[in-house]
Write a structure and sequence with these properties.
Layout: H1 3-20, E1 33-34, E2 38-39, H2 42-61, H3 63-87, H4 95-98, H5 106-128
Antiparallel strand pairs: 1-2
Helix pairs in contact: 1-2, 1-3, 1-5, 2-3, 3-5
Length: 133
Amino acid sequence: MTLHRTTAFAYFVILAVVAALNYIPGVTDADGVAFGIFALDIFDDALHAASALWALIAALLSTRAARSFLLIFGALYLGDGALGLATGSGYLDFGIFNNGVLDLPFSFKIMANLPHIGLGVVALLIGLKRPQD
């Protein structure tokens, strides 16, 4: 399996776990907040589940499909994290449309958006590597 396909499969696993967080007893508190930072709702769960399915399909199809997934996913998630860092709301879960700009502490914005920024950067960096035939 190529680097692109292996990475896409790893993203499938990561995103599937994230999509399941709300449904694992003890992970969220009484307010539905995971790890004291993330309040994942149905939009987040659907986004992560759809992204996981996309990653799995891409990994199983081909190196080209996996590379396309990494590039598109990386750009979308990095952009979402950057917007969340700037405004407190991202666009992938419709937060910027539903909540607008939020006045949150910058340290909280960093912690809340670091996963999307990190996933986006790694996906883009690996996606930009040329496939080895």
